[in-house]
């Protein structure tokens, strides 16, 4: 019986770990799965040896945080040495997982990394750590494999898990009616992000653009996709001053995108989700000037939007920092909505991006790699 340890460090990794666990169980019903994760992994049949909350040091400062980190490292080292695991699978969260991988490798374990660190964006030197600490890398973006191939690191591209999370098709008209919208009027989706700092910075800009769009065409309707990580009171306080009616939909980003003619979206995975759904978009992002300056020094990519990175060209307009204003967002939205040729060209490009992400079944293909590694 194969014994596999799955290690993640945050909520998104918990979901990917749960999907991987279900795929492993489907391929090998006798596999024994243990892990560090949350409720999703536990529900998928993973026996938790640590809960995500037990390892959280958010809010700690100074010596307390340092002591907690040292204890965490010692605990992980004991875990790797305590039992004979056939493989350890680390998921995302490279800040800690690359360090844990050092302890796992030192314990003589087979190490697999799923959803690899974004070395193509920043800190490319980490690839030398990966080469020493990881036996096989599983990537979800098509351009990543060539990077690891050049470094001589065994790597498999399995496709993006989003293709399993997004429905093959949606009833956009039915969704509009279900939310009380006019099926014929233009609908614009607002996606301000999944972190409270993003929402505080970006939602006022989105609402400013929405107000301008509503003045231009009173029939324009607005949907807001609320992430599970965003509290109701935060949105309510920001929406209270808006003169534009906005329908808030919780935890249904794909449906919101499918029901909309245009998506105004914060940079992140949501841009890829919109590409998979097939709805044209405009991307925006704004952060503190210090964070922006630091990113400008460290990040080594032409674009921040994943759609553009996958396409290796500008498909989606990126309004970043000083360009991320309500007026610029409004102008780009009008350009998309008023120009059928531009609109259809983006839809064609989004179909190409979707095709490049691979087909559904990323978790199953990742599970096949993990099981094959256990047999070597």
From TrEMBL:
Key words, A-Z: Glycosyltransferase, Lipid A biosynthesis, Lipid biosynthesis, Lipid metabolism, Transferase
Catalytic reactions on record: a lipid X + a UDP-2-N,3-O-bis[(3R)-3-hydroxyacyl]-alpha-D-glucosamine = a lipid A disaccharide + UDP + H(+)
GO molecular function list: lipid-A-disaccharide synthase activity; phospholipid binding
GO BP terms in the entry: lipid A biosynthetic process
EC number(s) stated in the UniProt entry for this protein: 2.4.1.182
Annotated GO CC locations: membrane
Top-rank lineage group of the source organism: Bacteria
Keyword Glycosyltransferase: yes
Lipid metabolism is among the record's keywords: yes
Function according to Swiss-Prot or TrEMBL: Condensation of UDP-2,3-diacylglucosamine and 2,3-diacylglucosamine-1-phosphate to form lipid A disaccharide, a precursor of lipid A, a phosphorylated glycolipid that anchors the lipopolysaccharide to the outer membrane of the cell.
Name the record gives this protein: Lipid-A-disaccharide synthase
Annotated source species: Nitrospira moscoviensis
Encoding gene, per UniProt annotation: lpxB
